Amino acid sequence: MHRYLLTIFFLCLLGNGIGAFEDPKKFRDIDPKYIDLNIIDPEQKVGFTVGDTITRQINITIKKPFYLVEESLPIVGYEKRYRGQLLGMSLVESNHTKKATKEGTTYDISLTYQIFTNNVVAKPAFITADYYRVVNPADPDNVFKYRIPALTVAVSPIAVFGDIKVEDDMSGYRGPFFIDSTVILQKMRYAITALVLSLVVLLYIYSKYSWVPKLNKWFSHTYRKFKKIPASQANIELFIKALHASFDKTINQTLFMDNKHFLYQQNPSFRKIDSEIDEFFTLSRDVFFEQKKAHDLSKTYAWLKLFSLHCRMCERKLIVDTSDLKKLSS
User: Which residues cross the membrane (predicted)?
Assistant: First the structure.
């Protein structure tokens, strides 16, 4: 008994399946007054190539007493054929919504096709006409059909066949294949940022105008104070006194010729300008005490500014070799 029931059940399923794949062209056309159709096709009709997608938006209203047989809508994976031959146009996405009103039922259908055909020259490609079935529930044996118009586009080759100049093949519809450059650009940004920071650090270290935290002390203030003041006897004396005060504050005691070793112990960079320090003390003694010879005010003041700059660099421990003096003085 169960065997016979199962046999009847499978026969019913087979009958429904066969009915679903019936040729819709054999049904009669429905009166157009029961149908409102609006199709939005892509504006581009040429320049497609293999792999591109085409989306059609179909808005169709079936007026009462008829209803759409939803099984007649296109099925994802179906490949379009013409006279039994594959057209290379496959439905890859299908979505629809429906809204019932007093007058009928409105369907918003979105169909996305992908192109799987190409040629050495441009050729037409077709989204063939679809036939949607409609039925009157009061008379289910009489099925009608409604034809959705076909869409024709032009498929271009990936590359031009034969030899041709690049400037003769500048179609705006067929662009190049792009490689995702997000990762490369991100690495380039990191590299450029690291390079800029490295350059800033190097300029900070080697520039004679660099500022070093906690080392920008006495000679820096002295240099900034006197570098733009005009040369005069009074300014020279003030400059020398300020330099003496900077030396004294550096070693926390008065600096003389015979206790320079305290300065060198405090900051070995000053050893690189030992001869300049001796010359400074000689100048100081001559200006304030001996006054044996007349000094050129401009040259003396320029030398004091240069000496102050060297002391400023030594204070920051930027002079590691005597050759650095020439670089900093230039």
Answer: 188-207
The helix (run of H) or strand (run of E) holding residue 235 is: helix 233-251
pTM: 0.44
Give me the amino acid identity at 6: L
Amino acid at 99: K
> Is the CB of residue 89 less than 8 Å from the CB of residue 130?
no
CB neighbour class for 154 (10 Å; exposed up to 12, middle 13-18, buried from 19): middle
The tens digit of pLDDT for each residue in 152-188 reads 888 877 665 555 555 565 556 556 666 777 888 899 9
Q: Strand 139-148 and strand 28-29: pairing?
A: parallel
Q: What is the number of alpha carbons within 13 Å of residue 280 lying toward its C-beta?
A: 27
Residue bearing tokens 């949607």? 132
Dihedral sign, CA of 142, 143, 149, 150?
negative
Structure tokens at 256: 């003389």
Say how far residue 232 (Cα) sits from the centre of its chain: 60
